């Protein structure tokens, strides 16, 4: 029955491993339950409690879709980066209402459903060369490591050098470094659920340090009636709506593609040709989650790269995703507790997972510049541009150009040429 429901294979994993993996992934991505309310509450009419509930519900729906439809060990929730674009670019930057932005997310989700049914998304993934697929995982590793250090204040903005070292002798930065040591030692000793335990220990240490602010334990979920199904159709045919939808589209697509390729390649969840099994189903789960998330009142729901933490703990089937959904369901009633977890406590988990994501770099043929240069561009542009999608797009463009320059036209497929041209046009006009 478990095989039919979740694609569970007892020769590859165990029920205990799957559940532990789900809990681990949940803990590493549960920061979104604190981040999203804080971010969206800056917009008039979006209460932090309602956003918390919507975020948890979107994660439940998305993870359940991945569990039963995709049968893969990935958690879904409103995406980091996508929520920032929603709040700071569309609403605060361009001056549009959050209702308008939600409409854009809904349209994007419906487009994704159509593209998935027609196999367009799957074809795009299969057009990405193997060296780039490996580079994507490495780049994501560096990217989430940077996010971890930045969220804790270890790495901060510096007007002279772009980034610089924060005050690591006190506060959030010091707690994150302590947590990194603790989590690293736990993982090194092979303790089950080491990343999860590291988060909790770091959170507790933060109480006497004044970093962790305990806000309570249990409360009833706040109603989402104020943000549910709140769409604005007045300007859906405007140029701005086209640009916003297209931006959501590209970020979501390539964040999801990058996560699936990177994590599945790292964990050997691919066939003999390096292709991901049940890729179409995974894309459909992602598309459904985005659409439902917009209805609930939150930004684009996407596949979380933090799922790598659960995969590292042994998660291999949809049972892991089901466990993630169950954790988010429980979290609905523990909003004060989860809102108490500081960024300094989740940062070590992101950094450790980033390290684990680096291993495919050894499989990139750096002695072949037609493969090495695009892979390198893909890797470094993710953290440097603060975007997974930019890394993939620029990596693909450079792959086509490098192989054309080297005269290796046989390596290039029509799909690669088409993608490269589209990506170039994206940078020219958007």
Describe the fold and architecture:
The protein is mainly alpha-helical and 430 residues long. It has one domain (2-429). It is 66% helix and 3% strand. It contains 19 helices and four strands. It has a two-stranded antiparallel sheet. The model has no long low-confidence stretch (mean pLDDT 88).
Q: How does the helix and strand content classify structurally?
A: mainly alpha
Biggest sheet: strand arrangement = 1-4
Following the backbone from N to C, one meets helices and strands in this order, namely HHHHEHHHHEEHHHHEHHHHHHH
Average pLDDT reading: 88
How many domain regions?
1
- Report Rg: 21 Å
Query: How far from one another are the termini?
Result: 48 Å
Number of strands: 4
Strand content: under 5%
State the major sheet. Answer: 2 strands, antiparallel
Helix content: 55-70%
Unreliable spans are: none
How many helices? The count is: 19
Shape: globular
